Structure formats: C-alpha cells, structure tokens
Amino acid sequence: xxxxxxxxxxxxxxxxxxxxxxxxxxxxxxxxxxxxxxxxxxxxxxxxxxxxxxxxxxxxxxxxxxxxxxxxxxxxxxxxxxxxxxxxxxxxxxxxxxxxxxxxxxxxxxxxxxxxxxxxxxxxxxxxxxxxxxxxxxxxxxxxxxxxxxxxxxxxxxxxxxxxxxxxxxxxxxxxxxxxxxxxxxxxxxxxxxxxxxxxxxxxxxxxxxxxxxxxxxxxxxxxxxxxxxxxxxxxxxxxxxxxxxxxxxxxxxxxxxxxxxxxxxxxxxxxxxxxxxxxxxxxxxxxxxxxxxxxxxxxxxxxxxxxxxxxxxxxxxxxxxxxxxxxxxxxxxxxxxxxxxxxxxxxxxxxxxxxxxxxxxxxxxxxxxxxxxxxxxxxxxxxxxxxxxxxxxxxxxxxxxxxxxxxxxxxxxxxxxxxxxxxxxxxxxxxxxxxxxxxxxxxxxxxxxxxxxxxxxxxxxxxxxxxxxxxxxxxxxxxxxxxxxxxxxxxxxxxxxxxxxxxxxxxxxxxxxxxxxxxxxxxxxxxxxxxxxxxxxxxxxxxxxxxxxxxxxxxxxxxxxxxxxxxxxxxxxxxxxxxxxxxxxxxxxxxxxxxxxxxxxxxxxxxxxxxxxxxxxxxxxxxxxxxxxxxxxxxxxxxxxxxxxxxxxxxxxxxxxxxxxxxxxxxxxxxxxxxxxxxxxxxxxxxxxxxxxxxxxxxxxxxxxxxxxxxxxxxxxxxxxxxxxxxxxxxxxxxxxxxxxxxxxxxxxxxxxxxxxxxxxxxxxxxxxxxxxxxxxxxxxxxxxxxxxxxxxxxxxxxxxxxxxxxxxxxxxxxxxxxxxxxxxxxxxxxxxxxxxxxxxxxxxxxxxxxxxxxxxxxxxxxxxxxxxxxxxxxxxxxxxxxxxxxxxxxx
Amino acid sequence: xxxxxxxxxxxxxxxxxxxxxxxxxxxxxxxxxxxxxxxxxxxxxxxxxxxxxxxxxxxxxxxxxxxxxxxxxxxxxxxxxxxxxxxxxxxxxxxxxxxxxxxxxxxxxxxxxx
Lengths: 893, 114
Description:
The complex is a heterodimer.
Chain A: H1 19-40, H2 45-56, H3 59-99, H4 101-130, E1 141-148, E2 153-156, E3 158-159, H5 160-169, E4 173-187, E5 198-205, H6 209-213, E6 219-220, E7 235-238, H7 240-247, E8 257-260, E9 263-270, E10 282-287, H8 292-296, E11 301-309, H9 315-332, E12 339-345, H10 346-351, H11 353-397, H12 402-438, H13 453-492, H14 498-533, E13 544-550, H15 559-575, E14 579-585, E15 596-601, H16 608-612, E16 614-620, H17 624-628, E17 632-635, E18 649-653, H18 654-660, E19 670-673, E20 683-689, E21 705-708, E22 716-723, H19 731-741, E23 747-752, H20 753-760, H21 762-796, H22 798-806, H23 811-843, H24 856-882, H25 886-890
Parallel strand pairs in A: 5-10, 7-9, 16-21, 18-20
Antiparallel strand pairs in A: 1-2, 1-11, 1-12, 3-11, 4-5, 4-8, 4-11, 6-9, 7-10, 8-9, 13-22, 13-23, 14-22, 15-16, 15-19, 17-20, 18-21, 19-20
Helix pairs in contact in A: 1-2, 1-3, 3-12, 4-11, 4-12, 4-13, 4-21, 5-9, 11-13, 11-14, 11-21, 12-13, 14-21, 14-23, 14-24, 15-19, 21-24, 23-24
Chain B: H1 10-21, E1 26-27, H2 28-38, H3 47-59, E2 63-69, E3 75-81, H4 83-108
Antiparallel strand pairs in B: 1-3, 2-3
C-alpha cells in the first residue's frame, strides 16, 4: 500500500492522457510486482517473470479490451469538456446580450424581418413565376392569339377557319390545337333519383391538345381526330381530382358514363395528378366536334389556340413565320382585314405580365429590405465591437489568449445569427400563411407555395455571414493591433478608427437611398390605387347579389320554355322578403374577350372605321338598369311587351351613341348585328343609358348594346338582386326559388357585387399592401440605423462635447453640429435614392394607373418623410449629447 | 477460474475490490495481494478479470483512479473508493451475509453432511 500520490503528478500529462501507454504501464507494473514477489520467494528472475505472466493469463487480450474501453471513455470525456466550454461561451454570450437589450432586440428584429420577408416573398415568386408548367419542355409551348387591330385587342380569339389555316400552313409548329372552355352541369357517381348535379369547368379541344402539351392520360387514352365529329364525340377525359372526388379513385372507371348537360358521355381517360390546363378549375376535357358549317366560319371568333414549337425553331422565328402567314390570310380573305397573329410564350401567358412585373417589383423590394437589414446588422456589430474594444484590449493585456477572445466573439455572433434565423424562419412561415391568405385567388399555382428551402438557405447564409463578418472583423483587427494601440486609444477616449466611421456613414447613406426607392415605389402604387378608387363605375355596386345559372338545351329546347322558366324565376325572386328588386343580364362583367360583333346601320353609309368597330351584346331584363342604378339618359327601358312577337328593340350606352350618332339623337335609329351581308333582324334604338365600367376599374369604357332577354332568349344568365341588407345573407332564400321550379337546376358563381369588384382590384391591393409594408419596414429599419449610428458617434464623442461645453459652447451649437453631420449623410443617401427611384419607377410603369413613374408629388412626399425621419433620428441623440454635464463628460473614462 | 479457489462471481469480485479499497487508495496489484493475504490465499483473484472489473467500478462511479508513485517509486494507477462505492459495498455485504447465513443454515441442518 502506498499513500496518496503527490498532487503535481496530476499535471504531468497536461495535454490529456495517453490511453495506450497508460494501459501498458499499469499492466507492466502489475507483472513486475508479481515477479518481484516471486523472486523474494526464491525463484530465479526469468522463472519469476514467466510465472507472473502465466498467473496473469491472456495479457494481450485483456490489454486490448482495456485500451478499447479507455479510448471510448476518453472520447466521451473530451466531448463533455468541449460541450461544457461551448456552454460557458453561450451562457457568457447570452449574459452579454441581456446586458445590452437594445442592441440585442434591434439586431434580432432586423435579422428576423430581413430573413422572414425575403424568404416568404421569394417562395411566392418561385412557385408562381420560376417553377415551370407541368408539361414537358414547357418553354416550347406558345399561346397563339388573333391580333385584333380593329379593337386594339392583341389577345383575341380565332375563328375556326383561320385556326385551321394557321395550323395547316405554318412551318414552325409540330402540333397546334384549338379549344374553348365552358361550364357543364355534370351528373355522375350517383343514382338518378338523388342526383345533385354539379357545375364543372370543361374544356372542348381538338385531339392535338395532348400532343401539344405532351401529357397523356395515366389511365385510358386521349381523344382521336375521328372523335372530333359530332355523333362520335360521346367521350370524356376526366381530371385526377374529379376521379378521386367523384369516383373514389375507382380503377374500373373507364367505360363508365357521366351525364353532361343531360347528354351521356363515356369516360375514356384519367389525367395524371397535378395536370392543369388551361387552369386548375378544369375537370373534364371533351372532344371539340364542330359541324362542317362552323369549320368554314371565318367571322365567328371563339377559339383559343396553343402550339408547340418544332425542334430547332426558336420563338422569334415562329413569330415572323406566323406574322407572314397572318398577312397572307389578310390578303386572301376580306373578312380578315386588320386581323393578325400574336404569339405569347405559355409560361408568360399563365403568369400574366402585370403579375410578373409586380412580383419582380416585390422581389426587388424584399431584396432592398434584406440589404437594409444586413447594413443595420453590420452597423450594430461595428458599433458594438467599438464599444467593446476597450474591454477586449484590457482582457488581452491581462493575458487572455487571442484565439479565446475570437472564439468568444464568434460564439456570440453565431448565437445572435442563429436566434435571428430561428425568428426569421418562424416569421417566413407566418408570413407565407398571411400572404397566401391575402393573395387574390387567381394567382396561378397559389396552392403549390411552400417555404422555399433554397431561398431560406441563402438568406440565412447572408444574415449569418454578415453577422459574423462584421462582428469578427473589428475583433480580429483590434486583437491584432493588440494591447498597444487600443489601450492607448482607450486611455485617450478616442472615437474609433476614422475608417470604421466612414464605413458606418456609407452604410447609413446606402440604407437611406434604398428606403427612398422603396417609399417612392409604394407611394406610386398607393396613388395608383387611390386614382382607381375614385373611378366612377357608372352604377351602384352596394347591396347587390349575383349568381349564374345555365339551362341545359336538352331540358329547355325552345326559347319559349327558357323564357317561361326565367319569367317565373324572376317573379318568385322578387317576392323573397329582403329582396328589393331582381333582374337578369347575360354576363355581369365583360370578360377580356367578350362575345362581340360588328354592326350595320340602316339607312346610311358607314365609314370603313365604323364597319370595323365591334360591340359586345348582352341580354337583360327590363328592370336591369333600375336594379343596377344605371341612369337612363334618353328614351325608355324595356317592357314586358318587348317579347318574341314584338318589334326588335335595343338599348345602347352613351359612348356608343356618341360614336355612331355624334351630332344627332340615336333614338329611333336602326341597326343590325353583323356586316353588310348580315341577315340578322334590324333593331330600333329605344333607349340610351349611362356608361358603366364592366371590365374593371382600370380599363376604358366600352360600347354596349343591350337586348331584352325576352327577345334574345339565352340559356345562361346572371341573376342580380338588390337586397335590403347583407346580400350574401339572401343566398339561401334566393337559391330556394330555383329549386322550387326545377330541383335539378344548379346555381354557381354566387357573389356579392362588392366582392366581385374587390376581387377585380385584388392584385393591385395585394401589391400595394405588400410594397407599402416593405416600405414601412424599410423606413423603420433605416431610421433605426440612422439613430443607432448617430447615438454611437455621439456617445463616443461625449468627452469632446464635454470639452466644447466647458470651453463655453452653447448646447444649441453642439446639437447643430451633431445634427448637421448626420444630415449630410442623410442628404447624400436621399439624393442617391431619388435618382434610383426614378430609374426603378420605369420598371413599374405597367403597375401604375393615373400616375407616371416620375411623379413629383410622390417624390416630394418621400423627400419630406425621409427628411423628417432622419432629422428626428439625429436630433434625439444630439439633444442627449448637448445635455451632458461637462464635468461628468470629462471624467467619463 | 480454478476449481480449488472456488467460483468468484463477478459481483463477489466487486465486493472484494471495494472492501480492499476501504483501507485506502491502492493499485491493482495491491488489491490482489490484499485479498490473497486476507484470505490466506484461499481466494485468489483472477488477475485477468481484476482490471476490467476495476474499469466497471470506475464507470459506475464506485471508484476513481489517479496516477501516483508506488512504494518502490514507480508510476502506478491508484484506485480510491468513492462515497457511492462505500454505500454499494454496504448494500452488497448485507445481501451476502443473508445469503451466506442461509446456505450455512441449510448445510448445518440435519441430517449432517457425513
């Protein structure tokens, strides 16, 4: 036995134990001792050694086992030690943060906002713009429009004959398809008795559509060209969604029949999940079976078209080929006069130019916010490093290892970045929820938006790198300058390096410039929106309920049958308590491509321009104008007497009256739809109503012609009801009237007029709200940046200010000096920003309404806001400086 | 294990080591020697299993080890029993006494063994 070993022995193996040698030592010691004991018993040294080894047994095996065990234990110990060091650093860092709550919270909020906003917006942009369409080589697909120079509408629909000529004569497309969309009353998957028909969106297309898209059914087959003839077109392809929804993903669905508008069609195919064309609402695809007459039609326009570029053909070549073809057709057929061809890549078509522009503007805006945030973090880190410079140099002087200090600073920077990143990620998640909630529903692929991990990674990386770089750089510098310089500066109470100061001021000026650009952009959008809100719609949009219904031709074959249903319905709806009045119109809002036609005026020559003017046509019930609040300017509205047996009458709007009868009374004038050869009946103008904007706030008023729904009996109508209270509260009782007449009649597109209108400006409102938020965010961050830097500089100059005050300077002079210096920086930033804003504004032209990109009022407003904000941000710390007690200031070190 | 030294169960080896360390820190050879001398060489510690057993005791926190100098001035690893080790020894000893007593009573009961 021996006593406790001396304590110094513990430090012999300072650099950690040598496990293998220790095991050898321990075992050798054992054997040596045993051998020595044997020797004292009288054995020869060699024998004693051999006996000891024999007695021990398998010394190598045991040695190996011990070494393994000890190595494992040593690794565990080192890990624990490292973790406890890290724990210490983290605890120290957290304590340092809690001692500087202002710095910490501003840095964290800045990081979180920068990361969160950027990631959320980029995720939207990525999902909506950057992700390709769900077809192979989607950039080879183009939308083919008829360029209508008569109306100025570039994206107009083809006549079938024109489409067929383009398809057969072009040399640039591998496939070209025509299609049109329609709603259908669908009955399927239930027994006849309890069938509630649903409304589904259907696409009628030529068989080539699936070749253009290069997507085929996952089950069954696509159409064949033979099925494009009526009588053989009794087939339908359904979406994956409809298949799961209505047929419970039944594998034997092929060959089953569905009833569409009362007609049986056989299911021949199911499309893959995720397939959408032309939009995600479409659930059934039906072959387009036209009679030979319609195929020859060259002046009845109603067909969309898409095509796939042949291999080796690029977009510009396709454009020139199709333009040449369009000109040829124009010369060949008089009815094609002023009609051309207009191509748009499908990817661009789906997203839309306005949305694309506004999303890129958003991207630029968040990029700017991210830069401002990074500049803020950089500034904060620089200021903090400067504040701690003395602490660091004192610690170096006391013998702290430089690596240890750097490790501590690194830990703190990373800790801050990680905390900020966590907050930012959370914010991105919440932000994305809010964005997709606020976003207008017609943004494509909205349902596919997820947090984009790539974007999150990039922004996190940027934030972390900024934090570490600006947190560590000064530390490296100060620890290199080591004790001498920094300590001397500490003793003198210096103001930090000149270079560091210039860097900080540059960062602030850059921030202000970015804020100015963002504020200007937001200002322009807000002014555009205000202009829009002031637009007079020409009708009273409040308390209006609208819903559509479509009467299947199979069930209501004659105009008389439809008219009877409509008359009964209107009568019953008007009786519903809470409904003040109700009316019909064929389409409440004109679509971008309305049903329209040229007209021929009776009794006078028409100029060529007049011959090419197209007017939309609508069927309305007599009280429509009263229900909508559209003023009658001249003549009369329709009456019940304007029926199928009476003389044909029409009501036009003021714009149309001015266009065709500028200096005379339009009342009593007669015209017919169609060109000179038209056999349509002549109609007498019996009334002129006020203009109304039916295509949106931001589009010009169009000409309009209204016919009595009792003379032009259409199968699809919109019911408009003016209600006493909340229009949507009347949905159930009004719907009940439909059922009371025909239980199988579905109703769809139920909405209040307010909501319809607000959805028309939804994208604008969305853009405005987003950019406004970013601008506010940027302004807040920018002000924080200015305030922080001025505060820091002022704090550093406390001693100098003290000297000045002691020498008799007035507090006002001190304030003036500090503010002046700050405002010079602000002015530089403002000037740079204004130039940038004018340049940036040009990219936003497509988003503006009623203002140009160079809007003096907006620029003046922004200048004022920035001026005031930076003035306050400079003034407050300056005031603090001016009120220091000279003696305290002089003693401040 | 050799037949004449009796079966030393692992738990028993632990008890012996802990008991050996009650007298103060000792190195592995010291522990082996102490057991041999205390039991007049009846119980011989299987030296191959002594060191793994010490590692297990250390992992359990019942002993700690430290490098020190032996009585003949050589570097040796000394083992010390911890507070937890003492408590464990007490508990194990109680179990042992009860077990040994029971076996003894059985063996002494009539009829006698020979």
